[in-house]
Amino acid sequence: MTPPTLSVVIPMYNEQEVLPLLIARLRPLLDGAGLDYEVVAVDDGSSDATAPMLLLACREWARLRVVRLRRNSGHQAALTAGLHRARGEYVASIDADLQDPPEKILEMLALARAESLDIVYGVRDDRTTDTFFKRHTAQAYYRVMRRLVGKKVPHNAGDFRLLSRAAVEALRTMPESQPVYRLLVPWLGFPSGEVTYRRDVRAAGSTKYPLSKMVKLAIDSITNFSAAPLRLATWSGLLSFFACFVLGCYSVARFVMHDTVSGWTSLFTAILFLGGVQLLCLGLLGEYMGRLYAEVKGRPTYIVGYDSAEAAEPVLAR
User: Fold this and answer.
1) Beta bridge partners of 7
2) Most CB contacts within 10 A, which of 133, 134, 181, 242?
3) Are residues 15 and 54 in the same domain?
4) Which of 35-49, 95-109, 187-201, 263-277 has the lowest mean pLDDT?
């Protein structure tokens, strides 16, 4: 079977409200583009009507391919499942909430072909529709990532991007069980470009990326791509050693001056400081050890329960 020119991968979790709007906007766009394509909708173990709605749409839209995961595995795992199963010469990834405009996919494809690019990022140059908290936490995230990973990380570029087949195959060789693609893709160093757009409000439904998941993404990003937290533990240890040395000199001086009764405050402060530093260092070491443990176990990141393009047998994949 000849692979399609374009695959569009869409991770979904409980998106029954926005799904009809997504199909109504995406299908005419791709049908009118005059190219062979497929849409790979990955249902990440939804508990609402997303799965049956996708299967019903699949009967009416031959280019729609439904991949269902056995359980909720997370956004990045669902994205991995879609990227690994997409067959297109170019593969675009986009969320289902329509905050990223599907129309930009064709612009990305045109740019990639015109300039022989392997990666085209969708960059949000206008985030006024986001909340104050969302805008500023996102700005802080990208500043930290660019400082830790390097300036090759595009500013304000999420998981809306276009990849060539070469880039997708390179990602498939990565053995990481917890990939963070907004950092892993720039790490490849392939020729890349950018397409800017205004980020819209969610078309329907509620966000699937609350604060807890944003914090987890930040932790995964830092620990997967940098040893800086371990260096922080080292510097904290050096700082505590210096503080203890100063307090030790102070204690000796007070002893020489026969004034050893006072000092409870400094001693209590030193104990609290050292205890806090030790717990921080243990927590950082535990975070890295936990990731090593997860990698050694080698459990699959996701389990595919159904693929409309293949047999309905469960498939294990990393």
Assistant:
1) 38, 91
2) 181
3) yes
4) 263-277
